[in-house]
Design goal:
By secondary structure, this protein is mainly alpha-helical. It is 60% helix and 0% strand. It folds into 3 domains: 4-106, no CATH class; 108-150; 156-248, no CATH class.
């Protein structure tokens, strides 16, 4: 150990006593010497005051501890046991009645390690939380994509007369802009919807207004227009049932 007079930063007396006490106990253990009940606390007190017994006066010499003579406090044996555990773990464990900041006084390196571990744990927790949030966001996006594809598939088999039912089923599950784009692309299939104002690129109507306007237009379509609308639906099941379909489409 560097002599106190040659060190760049002078050690606190209680910190120096703690380091010397730990070294003394470790040396005694290596020699096989029989140890006292609380060897670290006894060695620390001896280094600090010259006596092995814990006293109020000696405890008050430790920065961060101040005991008034007549105040209600834990018995001295509890202080001795807590101090022994504290010193034997080099400040990693600081049981009551010792003050929590004592590690920063006697073992600042232990306090630094705990702070680093807490920081690492917090970063790890934040990383897990962020990963879970990204996974949840990816799941929501996939669910939305699935709903949009399903809505598009169902819309392909709708006519202007039945669009209203499709819109009622999907208006709460598909974003407004997607609904409007779907309807605009779908409507190009039907000549009976040509010239509809709400389908023009410059129109600012919302999807429900577009669907409502198409429904109103469908109410005034004649028989031929309605038959044409149904004929334009890509109803593969109906087509397969027609004679010659399988042969002609192999």
């Amino acid at each position: 150990m560097i002599p106190k007079s040659h060190s760049l930063v002078t050690l606190l007396p209680e910190r120096q006593a703690a380091l010397q006490a730990i070294a003394a106990v470790e040396h005694a253990q290596q020699r096989g010497t029989r140890l006292a009940r609380h060897p670290w606390a006894a060695a620390f007190m001896k280094q600090l005051s010259g006596r092995s017994r814990v006293s109020v006066q000696t405890l008050n010499r430790i920065r961060g501890i101040y005991l008034r003579p007549r105040e209600k406090r834990a018995p001295l044996p509890e202080w001795e046991g807590a101090l022994d555990i504290f010193l034997s773990t080099a400040g990693e464990v600081c049981p009551l009645p010792l003050p929590g900041e004592l590690a920063a006084v006697l073992f600042p390196e232990a306090a630094f390690r705990r702070a680093e571990r807490a920081k690492h744990a917090a970063m790890k927790t934040a990383g897990h939380a962020g990963r879970r949030e990204r996974q949840a966001e990816d799941y929501r996006e996939r669910q939305l994509e699935n709903r949009i594809r399903q809505a598009e598939t169902e819309l392909a088999f709708r006519t202007p007369e039945t669009l209203r039912g499709w819109f009622s089923a999907w208006c709460d599950d598909v974003p407004e802009n997607d609904l409007k784009n779907m309807i605009a692309a779908w409507a190009r299939r039907f000549p009976s919807l040509n010239g509809l104002e709400t389908l023009q690129p410059y129109a600012g109507d919302v999807a429900c207004e577009v669907a409502g306007e198409i429904h109103l237009r469908s109410l005034h379509m004649d028989r031929a227009q309605k038959d044409m609308n149904r004929w334009l639906i890509p109803n593969k099941l109906a087509a397969i049932s027609e004679p010659g379909f399988i042969r002609d489409n192999r």
